[in-house]
Amino acid sequence: MRRPQFTGPHYALSLREAYPPPTAPVDSNGSVADTDRTSLRTMALRPDEFYDHALASSDAERRLPLARMTGWDISPFEEDGLRVSPLRPPVLPEPARHGEDPSDCDACRRRAEGIWFNDNWRLTRITGVGVPLVLMLHPLDHHDMADLPDELAAELGVLTTHIVRHVQALEHVSRAHVYRIGDGGAHLHIWFFARPAGQAQLYGSWLPVWDDLLPEYPADVAEADAAVVADALVASAGGRRRAAAETSGG
C-alpha cells in the first residue's frame, strides 16, 4: 500500500483514504462469510511484534528514518543534521503513571486550585509556557478518560466546546488546540493551547514543540487572558471563579 506524502498541515488524503481498514471477502449477499471471520486478526501487535516490525525499517543502530513531519514547512527543525534516537525495546510492565493511587494524586490534592470551577470540574492555567495561553481541565474526582461516567463525559464535551470558543475569542489568538495524552498522569487532564495569530509556522501538531522552544510568554498578559476566558465560561456554562470550599469560607 502506498503511503501518503504529507507536505504541510493540510493533507491531500484523509487518514481513512490513506490507511483504509482491512477488508475481507464477502459472499453473494454482501456479508463476510463465517469461514473468513477467523482469518481476520482482531488484536493489535504484541509489544515484541511491534518492535520487530519497526526495526525492519531501521538502520544498524536501530534508528528510523526522519519523520515526514520534519519536512513540513511548519517544522521547527531543519532536516540537515537531524537524526532519530535509537528505538529502545519495549519495557513491560510499563512504569506506573503518577496518581494511579488516588491517595498519592497531585490533581486530587490540588482540587481547590484553579481559575474556574463547577461541581465536577476545575480549569487551571499552566505557567511558564511560550504560547499566549495554556489551560488544563481536570475532573474534581479521580477519573481517567476510560472510566469517566457518561454524565461527566457529556459535560466534558460541552465544556471543551465552550473553552475553545472563549480562547479563540481572545484578541490575537487564532486557534485553540485540544489534547488528551494521559501517559504521565492517571488523573484525566485536557490541554488547551492558544495559537498566536499570524504565526502560520506554529500550525498543527508541532505547536507543543514550538511552545517548548519559545521564550516564556509575559505572565501578566496570560493571567489577564485566562481571567477573560474564565469569566466567559461562567457566563456561558455556569460555575464560579473560586472553589466551593473557598467560596463558602468567605
The class by helix and strand makeup works out as: alpha+beta
Helix segment count?
8
Could you tell me the number of beta strands? 5
Q: Which sequence of SSEs, written as H and E, runs from N to C? A: HHHHEEEHEEHHH
Helix content: 25-40%
Q: Radius of gyration over alpha carbons?
A: 22 Å
Mean pLDDT: 87
Runs with pLDDT <50, length 5+? 1-24
Strand order of the largest sheet: 1-2-3-5-4
Shape: globular
**Major beta sheet summary:** 5 strands, antiparallel
> How far apart lie the N and C ends?
65 Å
Strand content of the residues, in percent?
5-15%
Describe the structure.
- Strands 1-2-3-5-4 form a five-stranded antiparallel beta sheet.
- Strand 1 (116-117) and strand 2 (121-125) form a beta hairpin.
- It has helices at 15-18, 34-37, 47-55, 106-109, 150-168, 207-213, 219-237, 244-248, and strands spanning 116-117, 121-125, 133-139, 173-179, 190-196.
- Helix 5 packs across helix 7 (219-237).
- The chain is an alpha+beta fold.
- Helix content is 28%, strand content 11%.
